[in-house]
Amino acid sequence: MKVGIIGLPQTGKKTLFQVLTGNEVQETGGPLKPIPGTANIVDQRFDRLVTMYQPKKETRARIDFVLLPKLEQEVIVKGDVFRDISDVDTLCHVVRAFEDDSIYHAAGSVDPLRDVAAVNAELQLHDQLFLEKRIDRLETGLKKVKDERQLKELALLKRMQEHLENDHPLRLLELSEEEDLLIRSYPLLTRKEMILVFNIGEDQVNDTSLLDRVQDLCAAEKMEAMVVSAGVESEIALLDSEEERREFLQDMGIEEPALEVLTGLCLKALGRISFFTVGKDEVHQWLVRTGSPAPVAAGVIHSDLQKGFIRAEVIKYDELIALGSEAELKKAGKLAVQGKDYTVVDGDILNIRFNV
């Protein structure tokens, strides 16, 4: 599962990508290509479990990111970037919200809402053009041979076309399982979940007014939004220890690290939750699809655990932290034993019992 980072020129996409992945981005001067990278999921629960168990090994879950070419006019006209966007699962749109006279803006001024609308319009136009071509092809083919599947697809595409013409992204359109299968392979960009990341200045880190302004838009178009100062985050990344990073955040008045918010939103958009396995040997964070039963989560750890699943011992993270240890948790009768029908919840700590 991949998150694609998109945005207009000079928004801070590259800086954010470097902070997330630790990858240095080199300007090659050649054709613009997607740049892949992998980021650790920042999760304070994992850190607290490591502190509690002091394991020999600690393994965070990770997310794949792809830095996509900037959406400048020349790139948009060429069109390759839209193929790149279609290859990712979720979109992270970095929007400039910081003022800096030394950094140009393609539109001549900083206006985050205008830029969000401009990028959304380009994605929507791509989908409209794709649907027009596909509808024409289907109508031509159906004049020669009547095909039930193609008739269903044509009706669906026309409904989608009307939805886009009413200025709505396709992720708002509810589809049946059958309809989803009909168009699953198509490069429809506005079906993807969208996260807006407003890159703010250092002096704006505790200002929530921008998020207040976009609240209605996000609710109407099913988007998530957050603010981050890529400049501040890059400074934090240079600090040597976790203690220094915490002190820096405290001095800035930042309660929750922006990268933790971002990776959390990415997981939500990808339809994934975290669960943990713990012990003196290893504390490990795992990802599983939201709504998965316990055997499926066991299969994420190892296929043998899913095949031979008997039961799962489940500890709730908040209860473990509140009581201080597994021993106290057991005394309080808070260690639950669950069967195959149990749905794993974000933050669960699992111990899988199985028989090979």
From TrEMBL:
Statement: the UniProt record of this protein carries the keyword Protease: no
Gene3D superfamilies: 3.10.20.30, P-loop containing nucleotide triphosphate hydrolases, TGS-like domain
GO molecular function: ATP binding; ATP hydrolysis activity; GTP binding; metal ion binding
Superkingdom: Bacteria
UniProt KW Nucleotide-binding keyword: yes
Keywords tagged on the record: ATP-binding, Metal-binding, Nucleotide-binding
GO cellular component: cytoplasm
Annotated ranges, domain YchF C-terminal: 273-355
PANTHER family reported for this sequence: OBG GTPASE FAMILY (PTHR23305), OBG-TYPE G DOMAIN-CONTAINING PROTEIN (PTHR23305:SF18)
Descriptive protein name: Redox-regulated ATPase YchF
Organism: Desulfobulbus oligotrophicus
Taxonomic lineage: Bacteria, Pseudomonadati, Thermodesulfobacteriota, Desulfobulbia, Desulfobulbales
